[in-house]
Specification:
Aspartate Aminotransferase, domain 1; alpha/beta; binds 4'-deoxy-4'-aminopyridoxal-5'-phosphate; seven-stranded mixed β-sheet; four-stranded mixed β-sheet
Length: about 450
């Protein structure tokens, strides 16, 4: 089967949890908190039980209830080539035969580091360190920035999500926002004292925070295109302004490209917008669907890491050979095929179709999109930051989500998430989605 065909076993369309998924969720709740290993999977924000996934192929996931759904979650970003890309699967299968983990230096890690450094502008001529999750990447990059500058404070944006390290769970987006837990229990007040906040896309606000603590700020960390308050692009001049400000003040500028890296361009958002940070965090696509992430950047900063320098960071499974094989195969395909124009065109087609559906239904609706990341907000007017995103009608979103799922379309169960396309999303698949969207918007409009 080609990666873009609908898996043929299934003819049902309604993707809402059927008997089998509900049964599994009941069992899961007994042994896994909330039944899930990551909170937003539980469908809390939109209600009902989630469909359980049996397998994934191309642009589709197949549920335990026997329904093939068009998938716009893409395992939350990694699946840019579509699910189960044959070249990636082949690379993984080959790697598996040589052993699952070495915990020692291996040739594949060198090739992989060279490839990653060559693709991402801020890593060119610099260095990269592999870790296992986006959370580890951001946490480690910030420790490194603090070690390098000898300063303690960091700035993050309101509604930005950088994983679940204690000191980053302040005004956090994504699942934390969705569940109304932008902070969290279990984080001592002392730990978050050094985390300063600014509204996203507001350069003057960041400047003001810097002015208050002129010599104490180690780093500014930002999603250059936000995905975790829904998709929110940078305002013109914003990233450039942050670059200028941080350079002036000796602050390490960190782009969290866990979502945008290798997705918006080969070199991520920094390539697309032409702004080069000091350090970059990578995740999701870099591991090709396996647990692998990375952080890297300027040589003089990266050389502060142990065993070269005094900043400690380690990992038993870091640079794991299977994850490296999957990541390597994925990045090589992206480098070879550069599918970015195609992804952009398909996502534009989809976003336009959804806007037309909302317009036809007379619903206030704002569509944000950068390349193959998109979010439709159920509100009128621009969405430039988390405050704007929070002005969306969440009841309408819930109805929309359910109506789309009923029509075979699997979207993230939260207004505060981005949707993703893959190269397996053909025009026919996008048009099928738009047809469903027309009906779903009519349902939302009542
Ligand atoms: N940073 C960003 C921008 C993210 O979107 C995410 C996860 N969605 C993370 C960090 C954390 O990555 P992980 O879930 O792999 O720990």
């Amino acid at each position: 089967m080609s990666t873009s065909e609908t898996p043929s076993v299934e003819t049902k369309i309604d993707g809402r949890a059927g008997e089998r998924s509900r049964e599994l969720m009941g069992a899961a709740r007994q042994v896994i908190p909330g039944g899930v290993n990551s909170p937003v999977r539980a469908f809390g924000p939109v209600g009902g039980d989630p469909p359980f996934v049996r397998k994934a192929q191309g642009a589709h996931i197949v549920t335990e209830d026997g329904v093939a759904l068009i998938d716009y979650v893409g395992t939350w970003g990694p699946a840019i080539l579509g699910h189960a890309n044959p070249e990636v699967i082949d690379a993984v299968q080959k790697a598996v035969r040589d052993g699952l983990s070495f915990g020692a230096a291996s040739a594949g890690e060198v090739d992989f580091a060279e490839l990653v450094c060559s693709m991402v502008p801020s890593l060119q001529g610099g260095m990269v360190r592999m870790v296992n999750s986006g959370t580890e990447a951001t946490m480690s990059a910030l420790r490194l920035a603090r070690g390098y500058t000898g300063r303690d404070k960091i700035i993050k944006m309101d509604g930005g999500y950088h994983g679940h390290a204690d000191f980053l769970l302040v005004a956090a987006g994504s699942g934390a926002a969705t569940l109304g837990l932008p902070g969290t229990a279990g984080v001592p007040a002392d730990v978050v004292k050094q985390t300063l906040l600014a509204p996203h896309n507001d350069l003057d606000a960041v400047r003001a925070v810097v002015e208050q603590h002129p010599d104490d700020i180690a780093a500014i960390i930002i999603e250059p295109v936000c995905g975790n308050m829904g998709c929110v692009p940078p305002q013109p001049g914003y990233l450039e302004g942050l670059r200028e400000l941080t350079a002036e003040r000796g602050i390490v500028l960190i782009f969290d490209e866990v979502m945008t890296g290798f997705r918006l361009a080969k070199g991520g958002a920094q390539e697309l917008f032409g702004v080069t940070p000091d350090l970059t965090c990578l995740g999701k696509i870099v591991g090709g669907g396996l647990p692998c992430a990375a952080y890297g950047g300027k040589r003089e900063i990266m050389e502060q890491l142990a065993p070269l320098g005094p900043v400690y960071q380690a990992g038993t499974l870091s640079g794991n050979p299977i994850a490296v094989a999957a990541g390597m195969a994925t990045l090589k395909i992206l480098e070879r095929d550069a599918p970015y124009a195609q992804l952009d065109a398909m996502t534009e087609r989809l976003a336009r179709g959804i806007v037309e559906a909302a317009d036809a239904a007379g619903l206030p609706f704002t569509s944000n999109r950068v390349g193959s990341m998109f979010t439709g907000f159920f509100r009128s007017g621009e969405v430039r930051n988390y405050e704007d995103a929070k002005g969306s009608d969440l009841e309408q979103f819930t109805t929309w989500h359910g109506a789309m799922l009923e029509r075979g379309i699997y979207l993230a169960p939260s207004q505060f998430e981005a949707g993703f396309l893959s190269v397996a999303h053909t025009e026919a698949i996008v048009d099928q989605t738009v047809a469903a969207a027309k009906e779903a918007m009519a349902v939302v409009a009542g």
